[in-house]
Each structure stands twice: as structure tokens, then as C-alpha cells.
Amino acid sequence: VTKHWKLVLFVAGSNIAWCSSSWAATGFLPYNFLPNEDMVSNVTPNSGLISTVSLLGMSIAICAAGLLSDVVRLRMPLMMIACAFLCVAWPVAFYYFGYGKVPTTVLGFALISVGIALNGGPLPAWMCESFPSLARYSAVALGYNLAQATFGGTTPLVLTALAQADDNQNNEYCGFYMGGVSLLCFVISTCAFFYQHADL
Asked: Is the pTM higher than 0.90?
């Protein structure tokens, strides 16, 4: 593992959009933002049902994105496209959530679901293919859990603080934070791509 420490860090960096987005979609939005009247001024009717259906759709989309990456064999470029898309999708989604209407909430969840799926589908295969078999599981575990600990697990806490700082109006701070995390992931993923292909 010590021979591949740079790649371990690249794996961690390439995971931050996935970790943050999945925690935001499953650990923040359904429980703290959409259905809770104390958190926001505009509460979406049936928001719990909307988030549940959206997460089920996202699960199916992740499988489809993984299959797509198996077919086209361009895992990292798909992940980079997903991160670039999430840079824009997260602020737009939070803008839509602020309306508190069913159609805009569904559209917001659909936007982020597409980005999360395109990022999360190819990610496990790319991580495993990045290391030789003797170091594979240790290196993947280190990189993935480093991203989960630093960005993923802290995302609901950060988003809750940002929502309160924004006086729970339209939560644009939350959207900009998630877009910024996705931008950072895009930069790191691009560096990882060129690092892996430097010898070709």
C-alpha cells in the first residue's frame, strides 16, 4: 500500500463527490430539509414519499451507470463528467427545493440523482482496477474510508449549519457547498486520470 500512496489519495479525492452527495441525499434532505417544518419555510407536501421514490430511482440508475461503464470502459471520464454535472446540479436542485412544490422537488432530486448515479456506478470498478491485487483491498479501503470520514460523514452536519446560517430561506449556501465539493472532486479526478495515464 505504501508504494501506491499517491493513488490512495487520488482514490480518496475521487470519492468525495460520491460520499458527500450520497450522504446529502440520504442523510440530510429526507430527514432535515424537506419534511421538517422547523428547518425550512416552504415544506414540500409528501416530501418523504418523493425522496423515497427518488432514492429508489437513483439505485436503479447507479446500476445502469455501472453497466454503461462496463460497456464503454471509460470509467474515470464518466466520473469526471458526473462531477462537472453535479457542480451545477446541486445549486440548481437546492433552488428548486426552495419552492416547496412537488414538481420542483422531483426535478431537483432527478438532477442530483443523474449526477450521483454517473459518479457512483463506475466508481467501485475504477477503484479496484487502480491497484495490483496484493494491495487492492487495503488501498481501496483506505482511500474510500478517508473520503467518507472527511467529507461524507460530515456533510449532514455542514449542510445543517449552512441551512441555519441562511436563515432556512432557500438554502443556496447548501447548494454552493455541494457544488464546491463536486468541483474539488472534478479537479482531483482529472489529476488522477492524468496520473494514471502518464506512462501511456
From this structure: no
Whether the CA torsion 151, 156, 161, 166 is positive or negative: it is positive
Residue position matching grid coordinates 414538481: 103
**From CA 45, how far away is CA 20, in angstroms rounded?**
26
The owner of cell 455541494 is: 178
Q: What's the confidence (pLDDT) of residue 73?
A: 85
Widest CA span of the chain, in angstroms?
55
Residue 101 is predicted with a pLDDT of: 76
Low-confidence ranges of the chain (pLDDT < 50): 35-43, 200
CA end-to-end span of the chain:
22
DSSP letters of 56-74?
HHHHHHHHHHHHHHHHH--
How many angstroms separate the CA atoms of 93 and 111, rounded? Answer: 7
CA distances from 119 to 45, 58, 146, 148 (A): 29, 11, 18, 15
Residues 88 and 13: their CA atoms lie apart, in Å, by 19
Which grid cell sits at 8?
Answer: 490512495
C-alpha 161/C-alpha 117 separation (Å) is 26
Rounded CA-CA distance 195/90 in Å is 28
